[in-house]
Amino acid sequence: MESTDRSEQMPPGRILEAMTKPSAPKRYLPTSPFKAPVAPPAKQFEVGDRVAHDLYGLGRVIGVEGGIAVLVDFGSTQERILSPYAKMSKL
Predict the structure, then answer these.
(1) What is the CATH number of the domain that holds 78?
(2) pLDDT band at residue 13, thresholds of 50, 70 and 90?
């Protein structure tokens, strides 16, 4: 009989990867003494807005796709930024 070591079968880092994935959001219990979590309002952009992006820098909105994405001109490049615009803010 051939013995197989489990560490040889599993690729390195797979266990750690599985452990670091985010779980489902915690649900609010109505009997909790704490206030219910409030979702921040969705960011709204209009054509002509000046924006700052963490990766691309300063730019101007040149197109809006109804809450799905915005097209931004950063001078050297134009990028389509998808909602929820986590790395972008209005100036």
Answers:
(1) 2.40.10.170
(2) low
